[in-house]
Amino acid sequence: MKKVLILGVNGFIGHHLSKRILETTDWEVYGMDMNSERITELLGHPRMHFFEGDITINKEWVEYHVKKCDVILPLVAIATPSTYVQAPLKVFELDFEANLPIVRSAAKYRKHLVFPSTSEVYGMCHDDEFDPENSELVYGPINKPRWIYACSKQLMDRVIWGYGMEGLNFTLFRPFNWIGAGLDSIHTPKEGSSRVLTQFLGHIVRGEPIQLVDGGAQKRSFTYVDDGIDALVRIIDNKDGKASGKIYNIGNPSNNYSIRELAHMMLELAAEYPEYRDTAKQVQLVETSSGAYYGAGYQDVQNRVPKIENTVSELGWAPQVNMRDALAKIFDSYKDNLVDAKDLIPERRQLARD
């Protein structure tokens, strides 16, 4: 019976992973977060152990539970491009500095560290597919602080790899735009809470214009969360140690669409739902520049397609959910509670996130 420590358990990945673990395994979940609204239904489960806290404050609790548990998943991070541009030091302090002691504790107590890298670590790589073993990691100049997130994550990847050379059992996973129900919390509009899909859904429900940064030509490979969690559970299980010392892209290359195409797909789908139809007719697509939307320190990636051959062959995994079905599942999850949907990210936030 594994004991799994999830820091950031109330987040998008954290709450979906906890639910899957409790439903399909005999593992125990020890979770910490500053909020608990996504995991309310799990709190009474006998194998769910939740502590309301902050990794930057409750350091003794964290170290004790790293020592206590078998698998460690530090999922706490700022992942909002507007914050990269406006407060880069804040990103570095949480995403790298606050997570480094957790990595060191995992090495000290010889635990399996499953760490969330990011598709952004590849930066402006020109490869048709991003290869975790061979693709070059390309960032813009220092006066573009947008890259502080990718750079912080890359440095952590390299530190973890270095600890691995000294015996740390680790797996790095790189999510490619995971989407699904509960993607954003409507109650806690904090850093990392806004993703393009739910931002667009909020605009559709409110009948507001959708802003397309730089015309929305940039493409992303979207992955339905159930597919992503399937891969992640296999990594945690780590049958025969296959996932140890590995880097896995977890994404769906078949769901590669531009942000403009995503907006059109969502509007077309909304027209099929009586709950969304009337307000969707009011939505207009408006183009804006990245400089106007994020600030002068922003740059973007035009294409982001994962190479997943090793994820498929080593984990026995493959993505199953196509884009239309994924969008329909998300529309279904909100249609009976449009009051909540109307509260989805009313303010300007970010264009895309892992």
Automatic annotation (TrEMBL):
Source taxon at top rank: Bacteria
Occurrences of domain NAD-dependent epimerase/dehydratase (ranges): 4-251
Keywords: NAD
Pfam families referenced in this protein's UniProt entry, alphabetically: Epimerase
Signal peptide: none
SUPFAM superfamilies per record: NAD(P)-binding Rossmann-fold domains (SSF51735)
Keyword Ligase tagged: no
PANTHER family: BIFUNCTIONAL POLYMYXIN RESISTANCE PROTEIN ARNA (PTHR43245), UDP-D-APIOSE_UDP-D-XYLOSE SYNTHASE 2 (PTHR43245:SF13)
UniProt-recorded name of the protein: Bifunctional UDP-4-keto-pentose/UDP-xylose synthase
Source organism of this protein record: Massilia aerilata
